[in-house]
Amino acid sequence: MISVTTSGPPCPSRRDSPLSALTTIGVGGRVPWLVEPRNVDELKAAVAWARDAGLEHRMLGGGANLLVADDGLDFVVIRSDAIRFVQRDGDDHSRLRVSCGVPIPTFVQQTREMGMTGAEPLVGIPGTIGGATAMNAGGRHGWLSDIVTRVRVLTRDQQDVEIEKTESTFGYRSSNLDDAIVLETMVVLEPGDKRAIQEKIKTYLKEKSAAQPLTEKSAGCVFKNPEGGSAGKELEAAGVKGLRIGDAAVSEKHANFIVNRGAATLRDVRELVARMRRAVHDRTGILLEREVKVWSKDPFD
Ligand SMILES: Cc1cc2nc3c(=O)[nH]c(=O)nc-3n(C[C@H](O)[C@H](O)[C@H](O)COP(=O)(O)OP(=O)(O)OC[C@H]3O[C@@H](n4cnc5c(N)ncnc54)[C@H](O)[C@@H]3O)c2cc1C
């Protein structure tokens, strides 16, 4: 662990804090500082503090697409959870400014209550708007990028700027925001009928919970879909469903999900990921690319 000689961060923070409870799969060791800014100004001050102290920092949203090393990390982790607001973006009712810490389910529910359609494809996806913007979250019915107009970011050199969405801003499960911190995401929706929106939400959620282990502890899809194919189908055909290392197991419901059956460690998950990838490669020659992010000093793949 690093030793921090400066005074503490300029906002609420916890020293020597475990991350396992802050990731949806429940895996991860401690970090020297977990910083929890309550607004964008505090977030910016926290980044400046970390930089001045010579400490590396990472952004944590809902931890829903994240695996963290068992023995912890030497990073300052800045968690967006307390930065939550949804405001109108200008005079137009259909344009919203959504802060990075807003949970995706809250955003979907709030837009339904406002009678605005467009966010329904995100139903059932855990995490925050900041993480969803960085990862371009979505699924078969649409991606977050479909409704994004601009993104307010804090760049690596601490410039607070708004970036207009262009064709190259987002890709499949990725954004081209150059490791900037997402502060706010501006979206455009359309007026819609609340009951019709609710029906769509219900249908999409039913579909998703029939296919994915939404009630178990996981970090979402392990691998990206290969060009023109489905990682889940390839993994299922390779027979990995139910494969288990320690307390980490491939879900019986969806072969691209690893679930934590108790006290899984990153070591267990890493071994399982390697076996899953090998099984598909041996059968098809396809080398699956990892989707889930890993925070670890040691190489993972
Ligand atoms: C059961 C389950 C189902 C899922 N289904 C889907 C799905 O259908 N579609 C889908 O796309 N994903 C899905 N996921 C994955 C996950 O929900 C999404 O990737 C989500 O967008 C992650 O957001 P987060 O806030 O949890 O990000 P985190 O896991 O906290 O972080 C992920 C990455 O984003 C970065 N990040 C977080 N916040 C910010 C910020 N403010 N600025 C810049 N970078 C940031 C982190 O540093 C990290 O690199 C699923 C996950 C689970 C557990």
Task: List the defining traits of the structure above.
301 residues; alpha+beta; five-stranded antiparallel β-sheet; four-stranded mixed β-sheet; 21 strands; disordered N terminus; binds flavin-adenine dinucleotide
Bound molecules: flavin-adenine dinucleotide
Number of strands: 21
- Describe the global form: globular
H/E element sequence: EEHEEEEEHEHEEEEEEEEHEHEEEHE
Uncertain spans: 1-5
- Fraction of helical residues: 10-25%
Please list the strands of the largest sheet in the order they lie side by side.
Answer: 6-7-15-11-12
User: Structural class given helices, strands, pairing?
Assistant: alpha+beta
Mean pLDDT across all amino acids: 96
Described by its quaternary structure, the protein is: single chain
User: What is the CA-atom radius of gyration, in angstroms?
Assistant: 19 Å
Q: Hey, roughly how much beta strand do the residues contain?
A: 25-35%
Largest sheet: 5 strands, antiparallel
Put simply, the count of helices is 6
Euclidean distance between termini CA atoms: 24 Å
Overview of this structure, please?
The chain has 301 residues and is an alpha+beta fold. Helices cover 25% and strands 26% of the residues. It has a five-stranded antiparallel β-sheet with strand order 6-7-15-11-12, covered by helices on one side. A four-stranded mixed β-sheet has the order 1-2-5-3, with helices on one face. Flavin-adenine dinucleotide binds next to β3, α3, β9, β15 and β17.
